[in-house]
Design brief:
Blueprint (H helix, E strand, L loop, with lengths): L2 H19 L5 H31 L4 H6 L11 H9 L2 H32 L5 H12 L7 H11 L5 H26 L2 H9 L4 H12 L1 H16 L3 H6 L8 H9 L8 H35 L1
Helix pairs in contact: 4-14, 5-8, 5-11, 6-8, 8-11, 9-10, 11-14, 13-14
Subcellular location: Cell membrane
Family: Belongs to the binding-protein-dependent transport system permease family.
Keywords: Cell membrane, Membrane, Transmembrane, Transmembrane helix, Transport
Length: 301
């Protein structure tokens, strides 16, 4: 084969590959893409507009909210936020929520990672039974456990206390954490674990210094999802915590919103809503890329 022939064959192959890469979109693809974009725009508007209206209303007085609900505030001040934080005790409730969610999140991540690691990496008697019981916990409705939980916490002396809420949060978040992390630990190479043993590492050191950092994508994803679920938890605290000095934000919002008629300070109520949702928005905005990457890595495994 001559040089010109080989050159023409190479050029033809490159042209075929390039043409294969640049596939023309069909009419149906364009229609589906257009419909998808329209649905996303409508969904974005449905989510953003109520949040924007709530933010604007948090700077208005109650009279101004009813007189001109869709106009800009007459004055941009933080009086409603200060009133919600001090007068209506949302500062105390915010602190209670941070304590309960923070401690619960640390405990559930440590215990869940340990449990998932043992179930995924060691062939222990009954390990599959324990794993399936964890999965069964995901299907158990929370409201069915309210009455037993009430009497259990009452017998332990933890009813209407923050430690009682923490233990309850950990118990209900643990099955999801174990289920999510199980696949991450299962997919990690056994050679690295064996190499750590050869180097003289104990089981604890192998877990905390070798295997746990390798499962960081899964830990990040499940930590964010647990934070969102625990921060917005409503049924458990409203049923197991009736002491107003121990209220969390979800209870405070329910109590505020259930006040009778026009006696509600709606400006302060909207400010309390902003106080409640801002931490969730900050966590999601900061960690959204890490969450997406963690979930994609987990599904690819």
């Amino acid at each position: 084969m001559s040089l010109d022939t080989r050159t023409s064959v190479t050029i033809d192959k490159r042209a075929a590959r390039s043409s294969a890469r640049t596939v023309q979109s069909t009419t149906s693809d364009k229609v589906v893409g257009g419909i998808s974009h329209v649905v996303l725009v409508i969904w974005s508007i449905a989510v953003i507009l109520p949040m924007l209206w709530t933010l604007l209303s948090s700077f208005k007085t109650t009279r101004e909210i009813f007189a001109s609900p869709f106009s800009l505030p007459a004055s941009w001040n933080l009086d409603n936020f200060l009133s919600a934080w001090t007068k209506y005790n949302f500062g105390l409730m915010f602190l209670n929520t941070v304590i309960v969610v923070g401690v619960s999140l640390v405990l559930v991540m440590v215990l869940g990672a340990m449990c998932a690691y043992v179930l995924a990496r060691f062939a222990l008697p009954g390990s599959r039974v324990i794993y399936y019981l964890m999965l069964a916990g995901l299907t158990f409705p929370v409201f069915l456990a309210i009455v037993p939980l009430f009497f259990i916490l009452q017998g332990m002396g933890l009813l209407n206390t923050l430690p009682g809420l923490i233990l309850t949060y950990v118990a209900f978040a643990l099955p999801f954490t174990v289920f999510f992390l199980f696949s991450f630990f299962k997919s990690l190479p056994y050679e690295i674990q064996e190499a750590a043993y050869v180097d003289g590492a104990s089981e604890w050191r192998t877990f905390f210094q070798v295997m746990l950092p390798m499962a960081r994508p899964g830990l990040a994803a499940v930590a964010i999802m647990n934070f969102l679920g625990l921060w917005n938890q409503f049924l458990l605290p409203i049923s197991l915590n009736t002491d107003q000095t121990k209220y969390v934000l979800s209870q405070g919002m329910a109590s505020f919103a259930s006040a009778a008629g026009y006696q509600v300070d709606f400006g302060a109520m909207f400010a309390a809503v902003i106080i409640t949702i801002v931490p969730v928005l900050i966590v999601y905005i900061v960690f959204q890329r890490q969450l997406q990457g963690s979930v994609s890595q987990g599904t690819s495994k």
